[in-house]
Amino acid sequence: MDHRGAVQAAPIVAMVLVVVLLGVFLWMLQHNERQEEDNALIKNVLWVEQNLHFQLASDEEKLRYMAEALGRRELAPTEALPQFSHFLRTDSAIQRLLWFDAERRLTAAMPPAGPDVPLDDALGPSHRGDAFLIARSGGRAVYTAAYTLPDGDAGFDLLIPVFGPQGFDGVLVAVFSIGAILTHHVPWWFTEHYQVQVIDARGTVLGAKSHVPMPEEGRTHTIPFEPPGHGLALVVGVHRTENNVARNVLLAAIFALTASALWSLWAVRRHIRRRVRAEEALRAEHAFRKAMEDSLTVGMRARDLEGRVTYVNPAFCRMVGWPAEELVGAGPAMPYWVPEEMEKTREAFHAVMAGRAPLDGFELRFRRRNGERFDALIYEAPLIDADGRHTGWMGSIVDITERKRADELARQQQERLQQTARLITMGEMASTLAHELNQPLSAIASYATGCLNRLKGGDGSAAELVPALEKLARQAMRAGQIIRRVHDFVRKRDPNVSPVALDQVVEDCVALFGPDARKHGVRIEVDVETALPEALADRILVQQVLLNLMRNACEAMAATPREARSLELTVRREDGMLRTRIADHGCGIAPEVQERLFSPFFTTKTEGMGMGLNICRSIIEHHRGRLWFEPGPEGGAAFVFTLPLAGAEAAAA
What is the uppermost EC class here (predicted)? Predict the structure, then answer.
């Protein structure tokens, strides 16, 4: 255990020792009290035994005097009864007095009993006769064993021999009640603290001076009850002890305070340990966050509600070139703001302070300390403290200068790639277009030659030349339309997304691709929904997608019988979009190819570059649409793409 742990554990160890010592003290105090109570119990038992012995000895002495009077014939049997009655009134422990002569005949009894009752059955057990023999032979008082009296109480007899002038003349029998002895000879104040019982040799309770149950083992004391003897014993148990309320309250308060102190020490120790762990975790977390902030390439900037900078990370300092000491505390205008775009920057600043910053971020132009400009993408979010209060704004700044350059370069390359793809498409269609242009040009030449011959011959009239010249003009217009479509398709231009009539785009594409389709024996079936709304798209780019998909469909039906070569082009309005579907009846696309169908440089053609479908998907996704593949229900393949509606049509949808 380290020094800090020892210091923390010392108060708890001290309190534990205090509690242990207090427990030992209380145990010793309780032990001494028990010893004192046991000593007091033994003394009181001896006192009760001596008191009962004294009472029995006193009764025995009185009965001996009465027996001597009966032996001297100072009292006749009839005169003895009043004496018996007086004796019973003065000594409540004796229930009955009996006088038997030497022949065991009942001479007198109080309360009265029948004269013909023998000694052994005169309200007593048979062992009374044995006591009679002992009293006659020994000439001394004899106690009988305990037995049950007619009233249900337990008792015993005292036989006093009566001697006349001629010797043994009978016995005087006193019937004692054990319950009466305890009731009248054990003082009331003694039973407030103790319970007194008389038990026989078998442990049967013969009498008790309290009906409170005997206390637990160890709180009683037993002493032989002699006389009368015969296995009788006095059992005295403590059933009421004086409670020292003040001491108990004091002990309870001490224990409560000790427990409270232990709990407080334990709580303080736990709190200290938690605080130490929290401090260690805080230091580790601070070190981790500092390392993470130092390694970030994204600039972090915190500002209060008034727009003053409260925190910048090293990445932001490296980005703008100013140290944190110069930036923290600075307010608008910031040193990294571009002077020529100060108004735009202030508007963005006030929008952020008002909580109107775009969730997807916004772009601003900043300058470095050396004057170099750079483009920054900024995300602003509310800065909330631990109490849930809004204390400012947290900004994430990303230098996107190189990204924008790369995006611009990629865009230019994509446009050049699209231009190249269109030129390749036109190159592949060149022979067909040349044949298509040859027809109107040949017709123009024929009509012009005919008109010149008639004019040179001098027999041509205006009425005859007008129809020929009109046909010549129509063929010239036809050739011009073909050349214009080709020119529009292949010329280099910037994308122009605007409302476009998709049905006209489809018509131009069919016109451009029609000669090539007829060359391959493919019928083009166009199904365009009437009153079709305009799409928001670039006309030439959509033409490129349509021509590429139509050309792929035509090539896929190279092995299809000519009568089954059919290309279906369907345009419908669905879910606020214009859905275009180009389906063929060709060989279809194998399942293992479908997942890589739109990947760059993947192609199933022997001489293909693998860029056609990838460019088509890029064009459609640039228009915020989708391009996907569907297997044909009767074979073949279908490519479907969607385009968004323009303006009011999109809002209505």
Answer: transferase
pLDDT, tens digit, 9 for 90 and up, residues 14-49: 767 777 777 777 778 777 777 777 787 788 888 888
Q: What is the identity of the amino acid at 428?
A: E
Q: What is the rounded distance in angstroms from the CA atom of residue 210 to the CA atom of residue 197? A: 8
Domains and CATH numbers, the chain: 4-35+43-182 (3.30.450.20), 296-399 (3.30.450.20), 410-494 (1.10.287), 496-653 (3.30.565.10)
93: left (phi over 0), alpha (psi -120 to 50) or beta: alpha
Cα distances from 194 to residues 12, 189, 197, 200, 237, in angstroms, run 45, 9, 10, 19, 5
Are the C-beta atoms of residues 364 and 378 closer than 8 Å to each other? Answer: yes
pTM of the model: 0.38
CA-CA distance, 543 to 484, in Å (whole number)? 14
**Of 100, 95, 153, 150, nearest in space to 128 by CA:** 100
Distance CA 625, CA 617 (A): 9
CA dist 22 and 15 (Å) reads 10
pLDDT tens, position by position, 572-603: 998 889 999 999 988 877 777 767 676 654 45
Q: Which residue has the tokens 């001479």?
A: 107
Residue 348's nearest CA partner among 307, 314, 289, 402 is: 307
128 contacts 156 by C-beta, under 8 angstroms: no
